[in-house]
From TrEMBL:
InterPro entries: SelO (IPR003846). One of its GO terms (molecular function) is manganese ion binding. Mg(2+) binds at N271, D280. It is an enzyme of class 2 (transferase). Belongs to the SELO family. Keywords: ATP-binding, Magnesium, Manganese, Metal-binding, Nucleotide-binding, Nucleotidyltransferase, Transferase. The active site is at D270. This is Protein nucleotidyltransferase YdiU. Its cofactor is Mg(2+); Mn(2+). ATP binds at G109, G111, R112, K131, D143, G144, R194, R201, D280. It comes from Paraburkholderia bannensis. Its EC number is 2.7.7.-, 2.7.7.108. Signal peptide: none annotated. Nucleotidyltransferase involved in the post-translational modification of proteins. It can catalyze the addition of adenosine monophosphate (AMP) or uridine monophosphate (UMP) to a protein, resulting in modifications known as AMPylation and UMPylation.
């Protein structure tokens, strides 16, 4: 339904939410000052309508569930009322820098995102940001808009990742308009409302490091520590401890991505969350037929962000973060000689970075054991998992369905193999692996039913495949938003059987292989 309200209501749930957003809060990002952002209102989205809405995210924010029925809802979450705000409460776009595709890109920033403010509810503080709300000083050559296609994808995947148990920013709503936007072809404009404890990225730290602004760098680090890691204030070196937290959370995130076959597509340092959240859903994709070298972003001609490369890139990005934080390290050393102090800081940072490997590898091995239904680690488990990936890769076996259907394999005989076996063209290769898998299962104490139940709790049946998102997008372009809601509801229960929604778990249709996503959104 197209919204017609032109002014923010003086009372009601949206007025209450606006007051909550603009309330002054201690230790907020906005409190860091003008060095960190530029205040400006959004560009009104003409005749907006509500395309998608997450009641769960609304509940996180304390937003009254009746608000979505307000005629002003779509206009509010398109940024159309930001011009009514006082200068003190004005929305803002943050500045940051970063490495893009491994190359220093210099100053970047929120080129089409505006922070509406921060809400405190149920003991949690969450920032609310509009992506696609118009040009900012950081838009460079862009128009400041997002398109319906990419906004629906981000909305659906943000919520789907949460329900998969993967750290992520959330999405409250998508609003759309008939306003034309030129990308690779003519599309229509949209705004997605994103929600997160923080939108601070590695690139924020890189920005102030590259500008030799140690004061701002320290203020930003103190903000993150104070808000999210207050215990680090007691560390010998709180800033080195902050790097350690980033190493830990980034390694954990890489495990989660690899375990479900998720490809981010554009792991630039300005798209890496300091809290280890999945952020900036652009040309992402869940792997269908497994290919370790799968590239989900057709703009990534060199395969820098291919599936198998993601952990390595996460590690590389942490090096960039460490370099940016380097001027803050070592205050407790008591070393007067700057050269000696610098060498000590570099050595300590390198030692922290090396922990990525000890965080990532054992956690991924444990996750793979769980996906295979193995309770206790035994020698040879890694080789068993790697052999499965090898034959999946050779046969382009579907990632999600392979692991989901392995739960049907019995440790007693091969009668339960058929469903998963049929995903492989080279059946003898699968049979040879399954024989070894069955031999390994013989050492497990759980019966088949208990093991299958445990496997189905970690191997999703439903993920946001590209063709499912595309179907919802095409219908939404015709003003039918029902499929966005239906798909979002299916993805809320990714581990449940949902027999009534079996089609959403099926192998992709042949036309899905021609779908391409890129950085153009």
């Amino acid at each position: 339904m197209t919204q017609t309200a032109t002014n923010l209501p003086a009372s009601g749930p949206l007025a209450d939410f606006e007051r909550a957003l603009t309330a002054s809060r201690d230790a907020s990002f906005a409190g860091l000052g003008a060095t960190f952002y530029t205040k400006l209102p959004g560009a009104p989205l003409p005749a907006p309508c509500t395309v998608g809405y997450s009641p769960e995210t609304a509940a996180l924010l304390g937003l009254d569930p009746t608000a979505v029925k307000d005629p002003a809802f779509a206009a509010f979450f398109s940024g159309n009322f930001t011009r009514e705000r006082s200068p003190a409460a004005m929305s803002y776009a943050a500045v940051y820098s970063g490495h893009q595709f491994g190359v220093w890109a210099g100053q970047l920033g929120d080129g089409r995102a505006l922070m509406l403010g921060e809400v405190e509810h149920a003991g949690k503080r969450l920032e609310v940001q509009l992506k696609g709300a118009g040009r900012t000083p950081y838009s460079r050559m862009g128009d400041g808009r997002a398109v319906l296609r990419s906004s629906i994808r981000e909305f659906l995947c943000s919520e789907a990742m949460h329900h998969l148990g993967i750290p992520t920013t959330r999405a409250l709503a998508v609003t759309g308009s008939d306003q034309p936007v030129r990308r690779e072809e003519l599309e229509t404009a949209a705004v997605v409302t994103r929600v997160s404890p923080s939108f601070v990225r590695f690139g924020h730290f890189e920005h102030f490091y590259s500008n030799d602004n140690v004061e701002a760098l320290r203020a930003l680090a103190d903000h993150v520590i104070g808000r999210f890691y207050p215990q680090l204030r007691e560390a010998d070196d709180p800033y080195l401890a902050l790097l350690d937290e980033a190493v830990r959370s980034t390694a954990a995130l890489m495990v989660e991505w690899q375990a479900v076959g998720f490809c981010h597509g554009v792991m630039n340092t300005d798209n890496m969350s300091i809290l280890g959240l999945t952020i900036d859903y652009g040309p992402f994709g869940f792997i269908d037929g497994f290919d370790a070298n799968h590239i989900c972003n057709h703009s990534d001609s060199q395969g820098r962000y291919a599936y198998r490369m993601q952990p390595q890139i996460g590690y590389w990005n942490l090096f960039c973060l460490a370099q940016a934080l380097l001027p803050l390290f070592g205050a407790h050393y008591g070393i007067a000689d700057e050269k000696v102090r610098g060498e000590r800081c570099v050595a300590d940072a390198q030692a922290v970075l090396e922990r990525f490997k000890s965080h990532f590898a054992p956690a991924l091995e444990a996750r793979m054991r769980a996906k295979l239904g193995l309770e206790q680690a035994r020698e040879g488990d890694d080789q068993l998992a790697n052999r499965l990936f090898d034959i999946m890769n050779t046969n382009r076996a579907d990632f999600t369905l392979t692991f989901r259907n392995l739960a049907r394999v019995s440790k007693l005989d091969a009668q339960g193999d058929t469903t998963v076996r049929d995903l492989f063209l080279d059946r003898p290769a699968f049979d040879a692996w399954a024989m070894d898998y069955r031999a390994r299962l013989a050492h497990e104490t759980r019966d088949d039913a208990a093991r299958a139940a445990a496997m189905n709790r970690v191997n999703p049946k439903f993920v946001l495949r590209n063709h499912l998102a595309q179907t919802a997008i095409e219908r939404a372009a015709q003003k039918d938003f029902g499929e966005v809601e239906r798909l979002a509801n299916v993805l809320k229960r990714p581990f449940d059987e949902q027999p009534e929604n079996e089609s959403y778990a099926a192998l992709p249709p042949s036309w899905a292989s021609s779908l391409e996503v890129s950085c153009s959104s």
